Amino acid sequence: MTKSCIRVYADAQQIIQCKQDIEKVENTINQIARTLNLAGNEVRLKILFLLEKESKMCPCDLSDILGMTVPAISQHLRKLKDAGLVETNKVGQTIFYSISESNNLILNPIFGLLTPEKESAL
């Protein structure tokens, strides 16, 4: 059984206004969708959480904490860096990763859910 939309009159002004509203926020929607898509991966969300909590970390530390190989962690970090979610700072031969400030508005509400009090509510 196929359901279809049956309407007598379309609100043309509403449709025009909504199209204009979407156009105005198109770039922001794309950025949020890209961020949530990457953060939707369990390992990458754990990495982002740890970077938020610790400010900066190297791939070796993340590898030890998450029980994964350094190359596997590096692949996730590369995806996060390519999308602009994390940035790097090289100190000697060690590369430290941190969350890019430009993504705090998107990520902070997610991190707010990752507290022991909120964890039991989900």
Topology overview:
Elements: H1 12-39, H2 42-54, H3 59-66, H4 70-82, E1 86-91, E2 94-99, H5 104-113, H6 116-121
Antiparallel strand pairs: 1-2
Helix pairs in contact: 3-4
How would a textbook summarize the main sheet? Answer: 2 strands, antiparallel
Number of helices: 6
Number of domains: 1
Number of strands: 2
The helicity comes to: 55-70%
Structure notes:
This protein has a two-stranded antiparallel sheet. The chain is elongated, with a radius of gyration of 20 Å. It has 122 residues and is mostly helical. It is built from six helices and two strands. Helix 3 packs across helix 4. It has one domain: Winged helix-like DNA-binding domain superfamily/Winged helix DNA-binding domain (Arc Repressor Mutant, subunit A), CATH 1.10.10.10. Helices cover 64% and strands 10% of the residues.
Can you give keywords for this protein?
122 residues; mainly alpha; Arc Repressor Mutant, subunit A; 6 helices; 2 strands; 64% helix; elongated
